[in-house]
Amino acid sequence: MASGVAPLAIFVCGKTVPNLVPQSSVSALLLPRIVGALALRARTFAEVAADPAAGFQAAFIVLLAAVFEAAIDAAEHGQTAIDGGPLTIAVFAATIGWLVWTLLAYGALRVLGPAVELGGLTRAIGFAHAPSLLFGLALLPGVRLLTGTLYIVTNLWFLAAVVQAIGGASSAPPRQVLRVAAIAMVAHVLLQVVGRLLHV
Fold first, then answer.
1. pLDDT of residue 178
2. Nearest-CA neighbor of 133 among 68, 56, 200, 198?
3. Residue 60 contacts by C-beta under 8 Å, 6 or more apart in sequence?
4. Mean pLDDT for each 10-residue chunk of the chain (200 residues)?
5. DSSP letters along 74-90, please?
């Protein structure tokens, strides 16, 4: 497992572990960065895109959101614990989804310009998943009845965060950012449709 995680970590972070910012400094930045991502601050996305050490933070956000989704799915099926199988699938799907969104945005930027650093864009898109953490509120008894509404709100919030992530990771002007985000979103929907038709 570790051998599989290391290349992804190095790709996202841009450096090996010994060269990263000290762990205490990285951890201290995580919560403010999550708040900044939730607030859709372009400065936050630009910061994480420029910080190789933020790769682990981005991965943490994506994987924690996947755990919440698996837990909510288990709760809706009357289970009090998450089975290993569904949890593994949720984590795998979230990781693939993260990379797909990144590659679609990267491809659109390559076509429309300007050029962008792939690792930085990957980190920014990872932080764009911050609104998905709020979907975890559906685990609370009083909020469980609003799971559907919360799902829609957090997904729309995520799409808005993707726009800001693309803008923060690149030097593209606002109109170009919107074009790139629109292309990535349409391509993502088409991939989902094809996947369902093929039962992937």
1. 92
2. 68
3. 30
4. 36 38 53 95 94 94 91 73 78 91 92 87 96 86 78 92 94 89 88 71
5. HHHTT-SS--HHHHHHH
Cα 53 versus chain centre, distance? 16
State the first-to-last Cα distance of the chain, in angstroms, to the nearest integer.
Answer: 24
pLDDT score of 190: 85
At residue 189, the pLDDT reads: 84
pLDDT at res. 73: 79
Question: Is the distance from CB of 128 to CB of 33 less than 8 angstroms?
Answer: no
CB 48 within 8 A of CB 68: no
pLDDT score recorded for residue 194: 80
**C-alpha separations of 143 from 23, 77, 136, 154, 169 in Å:** 35, 16, 10, 14, 34
Q: Residue 166: CB partners within 8 Å, gap ≥ 6?
A: 105, 109, 121, 124, 125, 172, 177, 180, 181, 184
Beta strands per DSSP E along 71-152: none
Tokens 């630009």 belong to: 46
At position 161, the amino acid (one-letter code) is A
